[in-house]
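RETRY 2/3 - previous attempt timed out on the joint model. Re-submitting the same 227-residue input unchanged.
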Amino acid sequence: ETGVTQTPRHLVMGMTNKKSLKCEQHLGHNAMYWYKQSAKKPLELMFVYNFKEQTENNSVPSRFSPECPNSSHLFLHLHTLQPEDSALYLCASSQLWEVEGYTFGSGTRLTVV
Amino acid sequence: SQQGEEDPQALSIQEGENATMNCSYKTSINNLQWYRQNSGRGLVHLILIRSNEREKHSGRLRVTLDTSKKSSSLLITASRAADTASYFCATVYAGGTSYGKLTFGQGTILTVHP
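RETRY 2/3 succeeded.
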């Protein structure tokens, strides 16, 4: 375990479903991130939260809705997804002002059917 | 975009050989990092090199950085089958609103044959 825990590991959902991805870190980091990894594409940064405030939204469709209730927890709420949203969703955390390596979770493999 | 681009896209070697992967980027950086990803799993941070450093070592890993050419290389010496994975370089932009964000390249798939 890296210190960043993502659940569930795998998720299959229909296009009309609503589901949530969860990420939790107890490393004392003050920044958390959602990345999307699709086949044959670079990792795409989706959202950035600093001290639980959203500071970045990289033109992500509104069917993805992040939530950060505190600096240790991050959620990604999903609704009305499309098949092209199938991907590995990775959560990461880091210290914001002393930029060292990010710590990643193991990811949630999402399949939209 | 300042995304790093790795070269080669895929590398296949025998156990015991050295593996070299290259990364190029476009804009000024604060630091450059290398990550490893086993199939379908999260990324693991390997090593970070700052913009004022030229070379760094960690175990069997050696990273170089040439800011004049905007390029970096990762050398894995005496490779093992367990080194089989995808390797990504990632850059942290030097200033502005991108501070602290990592931007990744597409990665190099390394296969080490026993």
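The longest strand of chain A covers residues 18-25. Closing ticket.
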